[in-house]
Amino acid sequence: MAGATTIEVVKRKIQVLQQQADEAKERQAEAEVASLNRRIQLVEDELDCAKEHLATDLQKLEEAEKAADESERGMKVIENRALKDEEKMALQKLQLKEAKHIAEEADR
């Protein structure tokens, strides 16, 4: 009978140890899940931050593109004016040359 009791005690200890091992595994798994949840939250926060930066950068890019377009239009207007002014100057030089020639002819 003493042998049977010892076997029962050993079986009981094995059951207790198995239960403790199972509980330890469960705690470890729960800790891992909690850690992964924290990591997910951090990644989601980083994603939100990145999206905000992207939105801000896209808005700045759009504003810069508009400013560049306006500058380009302004530059074309100035180039057209300069071309017209050069044409006008060339015509005025020609008219001045003719006027000098006429004045010289009149003086003779």
Automatic annotation (TrEMBL):
Keywords: Actin-binding, Coiled coil, Muscle protein
InterPro entries (alphabetical): Tropomyosin
GO molecular function: actin binding
Coiled-coil regions listed in the entry: 7-81
PANTHER family per UniProt: TROPOMYOSIN
Family, as annotated: Belongs to the tropomyosin family.
Entry protein name: Uncharacterized protein
Species the sequence originates in: Jaculus jaculus (Lesser Egyptian jerboa)
